[in-house]
# Entry
Amino acid sequence: MEVNKKVLIVDDEAPIRRVLEFKLKNSGYQVLIAHNGRQGLELIKTEQPDAVVTDIMMPELDGQQLCEQSNALKQARPFLTIVVTCRIAQDEQQWINQLQDTLFMEKPFSPARLVECIDQYLGIKR
Amino acid sequence: MKNIDVEPFAGLFSSLAALSQIDVEVWNASRPVFSSASRPPERSVDSQARDFSERVRRRATFQHAVFGDQQHVFGMPVSNGQEPVGTLIAYTANAGTLANGAILDERPETGSNQMQRLLGHLAGLIEQHCSSQTEIESLASELTKALEDIYVYSTVAGQIKSLKFPGRKQTDLAQDIMEAMRMDLAFIAMPGREENNVIVSRKDFGANQRDLESFVKNLNAAVLRDPAHETKNYFMINASNQNPAFSRLHAKAYRFLAVKIQHEGSLYGWLGLVSFNSDEIFRRSELRLLMSMAEQLALVIFGSDLYYDLERLLIHVVKSLVQAIEAKDEYTRGHSERVSQYCMLLAAHQRMDDQEKKVLQLAALLHDIGKIGTPEQILTKSMSLDNQEMKCIKEHPQKGYDILKPLEQLSDSLPGILHHHERYDGRGYPAGLKGREIPYHARLIAVADTFDALTTNRAYRAARSPAEALAIMEKEAGTQLDPNCLAVFEEIISRDLKVKDNAHNF
# Structure
């Protein structure tokens, strides 16, 4: 099923990128790839994705900075951000609550659940 | 063959076209997916090209043709490793004058050979690229499944750690397995342990609990009718509609996986999953995962059985011990057992948890154990005791404490035993504790102990009726007995009396 929506993957780990790309493409999404936060932020501005999936620990610009810097753009054009990472401390992810349309997904994560989250946000029924 | 399969070579092909005027097209089974000509000429879709591409694929070898008068066309099959899935077609500029013979020799035969080599290399590149893409895709697919498995493991492992019987934890476990493995229904069915059976289903599943129960019951019955269940540790059906015994159990087609919950040869029951998503089948990794869940579950059941067996044994040993001591005195026979029963009524009323109940039960059963060291003639004496004898009697809480102190399992029950003769006003023994300083269990035992003493025959007096006993105790509220504990006790006993009264009247 083709879905006319763009999802941006921001991760410095190739295997995770491959998995997400595979899963999202199979679900009919157009997929954009960024290897770090800086590329990610560029693509958010130029390509206007409908959803962003990002890691936290990345070179150049990390996931938290990416989220915080792209948050301002959401007022004019809302999009979903999913932060996928390992939880170290219980309250570590509090900054996420401050941001618009931003979710936290704990690793180990289920790719199928991640796609479900995006589907749900974009109102896609399968 | 798709456009993206050729994309990495687009630059190469356009350079080739610019340098040597060779235009390249890549066809899949029915149409061109790439062309290096800036404006795809009409020939791309004309029937001549289509037929030529078709011929190359069918023959699976290099082909050469001339379209019209002078248009030389060469074709090379592109294979996916097993069979040709597309073709690479090269069009030369008007024949003979091509690129000053740079690539095409003037003699058509040699030119054709060179073209064959060139196209062979190019097709090889595309094939290699496609196969590594396919490989990456299958790795990504495997990795996706592995991630799903890890997710399920980590979710469910957390539950297993805190799994305890009895409790609602096995419901949480079933719920987690169902959600993590994306099933529509999960159940734990253990004959003979119905209180531990669990059925959970997805919210949108829509069936009521009774229908679910009968579905699960029928599933289990169908498994037991199938001879396969005896030899294997699991039972799996990927398409219910192909198995008459299972297709009639539900209107919709489903897949069903159940694994045995067993430990060291004893079978406790089945852990089962049902999904109505018939696009997928159960994976081996899912089966293995479910089997290890069932193993863990069995281990927990085995462990908790063992625990309850030991606990029952402990209580029985304690009761026998107490009976042996009480046997010396006909007046106190059964006293400790009754005190412990009153305490259990109090415990139920106070909604104590199981652990605390056990501690209180043991304390109540053993509260007079110290009398084992008291001379028999003092215990059974019908006349009032002298000071020396009284002193001896008053030693029994401390003696009981000392006897039981080495037993670690009883450590929580010791305060109740040591202090059951303390008085609320502080004039009791052995420590002279006052009010809330007296351990709660000791205050409860004191109330139950007093009541039982008053309502049974003694060497020096006859038994009082429960109502009389309560009236006497009432006067001791706040002096000997904790008024709160006494109030609760009175409530329980009066309710009990009323029930008996009613039973008597009817």
